[in-house]
Description:
With 177 residues, this protein is α+β, with helices and mostly antiparallel strands. The chain is 62% helix and 13% strand. The chain has helices spanning 5-11, 58-130, 134-140, 151-165, 169-176; strands at residues 17-24, 29-37, 52-57.
Amino acid sequence: xxxxxxxxxxxxxxxxxxxxNIQKTDTENYIVSVLLQNEQCGDQAKNSIAPLILxxxxxxxxxxxxxxxxxxxxxxxxxxxxxxxxxxxxxxxKRHSAMQKxxxxxxxxxxxxxxxxxxxxxxxxDKLEVEKEYRKAWTAVPEVNDFPNHAEEIxxxxxxxxxxxxxxxxxxxxxxx
Length: 177
């Protein structure tokens, strides 16, 4: 007896293990259960896939077995492979999301530290101004390049301080005239 049963299975485009259960009924019929399992798929939804059930005589099954199982089993195989790819993509997205969150948190901490440094420098300048140390206060004001988002405030503060220690020749001439 020469069959091509395994050659036909080999020609099917499937990944996983094919489980075939054959049971003879009281009559001359057989019930054949075919289930594809793919252990590579980590999604538990794979367990809800029901087996394909065929019922018929030995002649019916010999003539139509592969015609009836090939398409559904190949579709199930593709579904299981896609489920695993989806899970991997989802995990990858979660990792990237965590990395992005860490990056945002790091940038936020750096920004807070920079803002604290700016506030400390401005407080030092205010303290020196109260002590009438205008030149030292002017040098305590941070550089515009270091804090570009506070550029206008820095320029204004430096102008106010420089007016305290630089005589304005034009002001004195206006007063004398």
